[in-house]
Amino acid sequence: MRSYRTRKDVRKVLMWTGVVFFVIVSIFPLVEALLSSLKPPSQLFSRSSSIFLPSSVTLLHYRELLGGTRFLTYYFNTTVVTFFTLALVIPISALAAYGLTRFEFPGRDLYRRLILFTYMLPPILLFLPLHAVLTRLGLVNSRAGLIFAYTSFCLPFGMWLLLAFFVGVPVSLEEAAMVDGATRLSAFFRIVLPQVVSGVVAVSVFVCVVCWNEYLYALVLTSSAEMKTLPVGLATFIRMYTIDWGMVMASVVLTSAPLVVLYMFVQRHLLKGFAGAVKG
């Protein structure tokens, strides 16, 4: 009995050691970027200064970033594209997943399988035909074109994830509501949708992360500086012969901050969301 407890304690210690090591490795780059962004230029590569803590704090890199570059333009473009992509993906994927779980029609099972297949296609295979379509529509080098492109490959994942949640909601709940006089649509919004909030949050976080970090489509579909998003715009800070590392670190901090805050607020729903998808 004692040997069993000893082995159990050893496994627990090893597990928590691994967790702590993983957390440190994960947050170290962001912490180092934050500290480097606060260091004066003379201390960034100085061996005499502390590796981690700056001896003096300065906001010079942030002032140069916000006042001397198009960073705020990139930030605005990324925010607009993310918001409207989210506004399209969530209602469409929720209604589509609901329809696939509640209505019988020819080819339904095949369509459900094809949803995940379309998401598994490498994005590099799709950007050329998508670029041709957007060119004909006159949406190249525009925020609307990026919203259209991001919606096209965020929708399949959103529908696939929400399918598992709607399958887990008993049909009897909405049937009881419709017996009491509710319409199909009101039963969906008042009865079914509150049961899948965790799934909606998980899809929302996924869409935000994809739109915020996506580089390939933004690079191909935008040409003017006024339309560039954060990943493409920040890449211009790295020049051939000179790199302003202080400004780069400041841009990393400001770019990562919204996603970090988002994870902090929705992590509980996010864990439930992916756990529910696995069960489904």
From TrEMBL:
Keywords: Cell membrane, Membrane, Transmembrane, Transmembrane helix, Transport. GO terms for cellular component: plasma membrane. SUPFAM superfamilies: MetI-like. It is found in: Cell membrane. CDD domains: TM_PBP2 (cd06261). Residues 75-266 form the ABC transmembrane type-1 domain. Pfam families: BPD_transp_1. Coiled coil: none annotated. The chain crosses the membrane at residues 12-31, 74-98, 110-134, 146-167, 187-209, 245-266. Its main location: membrane. It is a multi-pass membrane protein. One of its GO terms (biological process) is transmembrane transport. Belongs to the binding-protein-dependent transport system permease family. This is Carbohydrate ABC transporter permease.
